[in-house]
Amino acid sequence: MRASSPVISIAQLQKTFYVPEREAGLRAATRNLFRRQNREVKAVDDITFEVAPGEMVGFLGPNGAGKTTTLKMLSGLLYPTGGEISVLSYIPSRRQRDFLRQITLVMGQRNQLAWDIPALDSFELNRAVYQIPRPDFDQTVAELIELLDLEAIVRKPVRNLSLGERMKVEIAGSLLHRPQVLFLDEPTIGLDVTMQRRIRNFIAEYNHRHGATVLLTSHYMADVVALCRRVIVIHHGKILYDGELSGLVDKFSALKTIVLTVPDSSIDLSMFGEVTSREPSRVTLRVPRADTSRVTAQVLASLPVSDLTVEDPPIEEVIEHVFAQGPEQAA
Amino acid sequence: MRAMLDFYLTQMKMALVQQFQYRVANYFYMIGMIAEPVIYLVVWSTVANAQGGSVAGYTPGEFAAYYIVWTLVRNMNIVLTPYAWENYIQRGWLSMELLRPVHPLHAQIAYFAGWKFVAIVMWLPIAAILAAVFQPEINTSPWAVAAFVVALWGGFFVRFMMLWLLGMITFWTTRVSAIFELYFTMELLFSGRLVPLALLPPWAQQLAAYMPFKWAFGFPIELLLGKYTQAQALYGLGAQVFWIALGAILVRLFWRTALRRFSAVGA
Asked: At residue A180, what are phi and psi to the nearest 5 degrees?
């Protein structure tokens, strides 16, 4: 594989599930005996993208958007209904051993480590599963223990660990074979802010040290903002946006926020835009992006403003706006 | 090959560590399992005594030996139940195993094989107590004991492959209990678990020889009890190899198709 060729390549990828369904009641149940009704659900609908070596990409979307289904197809767990996938030049659904040795899928709500025994025992099993030479294994375990601060917890049975501690050892267990491609599905779900930050820092460090390619889904925008310059937004199985995170705000946010510092915050500012918050000597206005310059000039000319800042709305708000627009608004 | 051996030994060691943690639960489980053969033993010993000392060549002492060895074989026969497949799939455990570069079949075989060593160690004192109470008679020979050790593991592999295949039906339909029940009823009748096969009518014994159940259960017991010639023992071991190989071929044939069916819920 050439250094410049993409590590992940998806073209017109589709996944359709056939879900049995029927109305409630005896009559519907009887009718269903003779004529089963299935509903076709397009979980992933004709998506195309590429990810370059070493790139960290945020894969965003509301629940049921098709993120996890895509990750499962990328890691070889699900067969695509249509389209093509290549990861490290392998077709994932063939689940070749050399492919599986180079990837990992971490799912925030799934455990791969044995519940009843210390994580170190499960690590040992992973050494045998991935045929990691002993010196490499010892070195990697030591490195992961240091980076994730696991010293005090790897010898306790996994069942005795807190959610955050468990997630840390799960991540460590998934990376013992030093995968080149990481599929991380909500790796910080349910964790407190400190633990989220620690895991985020670790992922960044792993990417830096090993040049690994990372595709990350998270409902916490802080994860995405901290780790990913590029985001892919998916909704109802279709890609709504693929590009720089900063571009997402430019493209989808129709509004800007103007924060004014004024002597009297009770004055009527509704003629300039929507007042979203009012504190002593501080007012926040929301205005259409196109009107920002005009409104700013008017405010400065007509009010005793001691300070003024123009900001993009919070990224969570932008994402919410994108999801609300739906696929028909996709570029 | 070396890598696979390393994997098997490590997985078995892990199963040992896990199961020793639950030694008390394992013991109670094992003690609970003894009730079944003890009932059979008491019934058949009574029948043998009433019929002048033996039934179909089995004396009360041989019945005792049969049902004491039965407890060991029954423990060796415990493998991944097909009922577990629904959870195995829906809770995502199968997904986690599919992400590894080792077939889940190997992972499960190694895990259960490791567990067997715990079962054997725990069985020994129970066997000693049962022997003291029921006075078994065994007319065996060194070669039969050696062949029994092989057949004991052969039986484990036969049942493992058969139940793995049965469990794989879960990929196609979720209402599999009826099929499993039918299988287990046939197994109870034709394996030698309910009664030694020698007590069945000749046609049923012939039928049992063409099914896998006897080779997983009754064969190892009868082998240790000295009921077979060397040629018959070799034939029996060959039958075990046949059923294991057939199971492996069928798993290989259907696994890929099964995974295609593995469409979502737990994936």
From this structure: -85, -20
**Could you give the number of structural domains in chain B?**
1
Q: Do B22 and A116 touch (CB under 8 A)?
A: yes
Single-letter code of the amino acid located at B159 = R
Please give the pLDDT value at position A330: 45
Q: Could you give the number of structural domains in chain A?
A: 2
Strands A38-51 and A8-20: antiparallel
pLDDT at A2: 44
Q: What is the pLDDT of residue A17?
A: 84
Same domain, A165 and A280: no
Residue B140 near residue B81 (C-beta atoms within 8 A): no
Residue A128 at interface with chain B, using a CB cutoff of 8 Å: yes
| Cβ under 8 Å to A: B residues 108-127 | none
Domain boundary among A204, A228, A249: A249
**Structure confidence at residue A326 (pLDDT):** 59
A119 and A231 fall within a common domain = yes
CA B29 to chain centroid, in Å, comes to 16
Asked if A275 contacts A284 with a C-beta cutoff of 8 angstroms, the reply is: yes
| A chain contacts of residue B21, beta-carbon cutoff 8 Å | 116-117
Indicate whether this model's pTM tops 0.90.
no
- Reported residue count of chain A is 331
The confidence score (pLDDT) of residue A331 equals: 43
So what's the pLDDT on residue A279?
86
For residue A237, what are its two tokens?
């199985």
Q: Tally the residues of chain B.
A: 267
User: Which of A17, A112, A117 lies nearest to residue B263, judging by beta carbons?
Assistant: A17
pLDDT under 50: residue ranges of chain A: 1-2, 328-331
Structural domain boundaries, residue A25: 8-249
Q: CA B123, B127, B132: angle at the middle one, nearest 5?
A: 155
What is the bridge-based pairing of β-strands A103-107 and A181-185?
Answer: parallel
Q: Decide if B18 and A131 are in contact by the 8 Å CB cutoff.
A: no
Q: What's the rounded Cα separation, in Å, for the pair B30 and B134?
A: 18
CATH number at residue A27: 3.40.50.300
Split chain B (267 residues) into runs of 10 and give each run's mean pLDDT.
Answer: 89 86 79 86 88 86 93 92 84 87 93 90 90 90 96 96 93 81 93 92 94 96 95 97 97 90 57
Burial of A52 (0-12, 13-18, 19+ CB in 10 A): middle
Q: Domain for residue B109, yes or no?
A: yes
Which residues from chain B sit within 8 angstroms of residue A113, using beta carbons? none
Q: Is B87 on the interface with A (CB under 8 A)?
A: no
Cβ B99–A104 below 8 Å, yes or no? yes
**Residues A50, A112: one domain?**
yes
A2 belongs to a structural domain: no
ipTM: 0.83
Please, where are the H alpha helices in B51-141?
Answer: 60-76, 84-90, 93-98, 104-134
